[in-house]
Amino acid sequence: MSAQARGCRAVRFRQPRALAIERIEAPPPGTGEVRVKLQGCGVCGSNLPVWEGRPWFGYPLEPGAPGHEGWGRVDAVGEGVEGLRPGDRVALLSFHAYAEYDLAPASGVVRLPETLGERSFPGEALACVMNIFERCAIEAGQTVAIVGVGFIGAALTALAAGAGARVLALSRRPFALEMAERMGASALIRLDDAARAIAQARAMTGGEGCRCVIEAAGTQQTLDVATEITGVRARLVIAGYHQDGPRQVNLQQWNWRGLDVINAHERDPAVYRRGMEAAVNLVVRGGFDPEPLWTHRFPLEEASAAFEALALRPAGFMKGLIECG
Hints:
Helix content: 25-40%
Radius of gyration: 20 Å
Number of domains: 2
Number of helices: 9
Distance between the termini: 19 Å
Number of strands: 15
Strand content: 25-35%
CATH architecture of the largest domain: Alpha-Beta Complex
CATH class of the largest domain: Alpha Beta
Order of helices and strands: EEEHEEEEHEHEHEHEHEHEHEHE
Structural class: alpha/beta
Largest sheet: 7 strands, mixed
CATH superfamily of the largest domain: Medium-chain alcohol dehydrogenases, catalytic domain
């Protein structure tokens, strides 16, 4: 089979909670594009509503969508592409990465150095972490609270602790708090009782509140808790993905405390690329090891099980990867 026409398997969302594996023809790369033979793709929490179903989604989705945390090896390059060649191991920004092959603009591809070996590297997910962390502007000696410890919250715990901050981790899940402690959290607070968690966090700061609070779960409750444990002139960073309807905020509290409220989500591909490059550099120099966060791995044909794990978050779950072999 030629490099220009390869058959490949791809996950297809036919209906909510109904996935199928289809065999498609991997398209050739166009001008300025590369085709990547994927080794895997991270399962992003933002994809959970697509799995569950929402009125605004149309099914079936395109094959491979909405996978966007892929990594693998360049398989073919289009005209005008420089600095990349077949065989290069890369992370990429793409949108159909629940498949064996995907296309990406060369500008959205970051080469992975040989020192990483064959380690899993969902670059887009790690770029999110790096970009959020940059906007948190955390300094050594600050008290930082992370409300919600999933993959993003756990990774940010490691980065904040590495920057010399005192990190308070808040989560409902015992395993998540264990992971936060492993990542460097100084204090662990159960979030099953919001009022008690707020009281504990404020007591740990002498009643002053935290200098930076990162909301990382994307729920009304975590947004409310994050607001209540901020200090005066603190920074409240919204890292959670709020996508299931409107939210209410205590604007009186935000006004009174003079908070800097940061929506840390990015949409500029160039910013994502810089985030991926920063993540590669950090991992290579030993500043952060994400391997403990890849807790569940699934072959492509078990993609449904990957989404079920994401929805249920069983004991020991932090982030799932779909691997293509």
